[in-house]
Predict the structure.
Amino acid sequence: MKGSVTCAITVTIVLATAGVAFADPITITVDRRSVGAIAGSSLTQARANDTLVATATAPVGQGPGAATAALASSYSDPMHWVGAGSASISTNGWGAYSGVSLFEADFSVTSPVSYTFDGTFVASRSVPRGNSSDGLFAVLSVDTGRDEDGEETGPSVFALYNPMPDIGSSSSNRSATGLLTPGKYAFLLLGSASHIFPESGTASSAFAFTFDFSPADAAPTPEPASLLLLGTALAGVVCRSRRRSMHV
């Protein structure tokens, strides 16, 4: 009986230890994902979800036009982020229109990780950009805090931009690789389209990306099933050794 109790305790300790080895080094601390659409005095927003959509249509008397923004994304696996977003406006006369798709998250790193970011960016306009504030870029920063406008104030780890056309279209593929040491970080990927002049036309921005992390340790991390089998085997060896010693 005493040997059985010892074996049970041993199994519990071994499996508990195996579970500790599995903690992800990446933890999402703040979900800032959002989309927004403005058409004249009409405003629509959505936040903090894997699927976000916003559509705004100009009220009667403010000129025909509409703005849309969408974002489909996930970091349910903290080591693998993926997403696609778009923003577009369409106008037929004077008005202020804007669409913004934003993948943004604050996260912490508890042990060194290697990262690989791959993104595809596309933008187009049928009317001159003028004073419109279109943007299409990805920035990873060290999180040292935010200013009064909510913008990250820490230094950039990487910053990738797609050239925005004054009129016409542009596209690019951007990537970055590197190492993150333990600490706090903020990642932002934005696509926006806007129009504030009387000319009729359209504008759009779109992106798709993957952001992958992996432990920087040279030794590969065992799979859960492998750890379970190893833990069970070790527990069996200990149990058999104890039983033999009890019968000597």
